[in-house]
Amino acid sequence: MKLIDGYIIRKFLGTFFFSIILILTIAVVFDFAEKVDNFMEKQAPVKAIVFDYYFNFIPYFATLFSPLFVFISVIFFTSKMAANTEIIAILNSGMSFRRLMWPYFLSSLVIAVLTFLLTNFVIPQSNLKRMAFEDKYYRPTSRRVPVMNIHRQVSRNVLIYMESFNPISLAGRNFTIEKFNDSGELRSKLSGNMVRYDTSKNKWTVINYYIRWIEDDVDSLSSGERIDTTLTIKPDDLSRGPGFVGTMTYSELNNYISQLKLQGSDELKLFLIEKHRRISNPFAIFILTLIGVSLSSKKVRGGIGMNIGIGLGLSFSYILFMQFAAQFSLKGNLDPMVAMWIPNFIYAGIAFILYKIAPK
Length: 360
Known about the structure:
The protein has 10 helices and 6 strands; from the N terminus they run H-H-H-H-H-E-E-E-E-E-E-H-H-H-H-H. It has helices at residues 3-41, 46-64, 66-83, 86-92, 97-137, 235-238, 250-263, 268-296, 305-331, 336-357, and strands at residues 147-155, 158-166, 171-180, 186-198, 203-215, 218-229.
């Protein structure tokens, strides 16, 4: 490592962490101003506000927008280096533009690894504390809302249906369980006007039920007021809060995706998108770094305003494109992995073109 490498790494990481601290300070001030009335009304303790909420609020938003902060940082300090003729001096000393990228990518690697580890292993636990605080001291009602028309495969050849499920009362209406053999033929069907989860027994109780049995092409029917049944599915699996996906570590997310595949859940795409987003976001840091250096390494008249403007436009278009891709996957037939990696591939192409035309 040469002296210039250490100089660029210090500039990169110093500018990145300074911008993170500056933006998050502003975000915390505005967030507190918005929620202070709720905190006072619910009599939230100062210790809980600081340690349970804001100590978990800060890393969540820092990693959420880390690619954007990296891009802005690279544009800012590289443009200043170019304006001070430092880039020209470095290239005239015999260092190639490709070699100049080495300290940039080393710094990006540090941030990408840190972002990946925080997103997949640390922040899910902090999100649990933050959301618990919000439910207790900020949000007037529970995050969970009734779910309609639930179709799930709970185990091999076993399907359930509920017309609606209320996560507050843990009760569902018009419940059925259908069991099939390996040939796909119906063998039994349990129907009930209502089903309720018993937390003391960890079982479901079907009320006013009918059971139809089919054995050797002979039908039999029985009924009763209530019957207990054990299912692999729990009430939490039927109604999740909107932030639940962010409370799972990487291994928990993979296990839950396997469970959703078995159940045939409509939520599967949402969790697959989250999984691939956690992997693709760190790679976006390298792509946006290359774009930033290629755009801002040229000395231009009028200062760094034009470079920062172009950089912000590209970074916001990248974020917008990723959101559009996620919605196309959720509402359409686009594969979640493809949806999360398309922006990276497209902007990698843009980065390569900008790198080729950058002054060397």
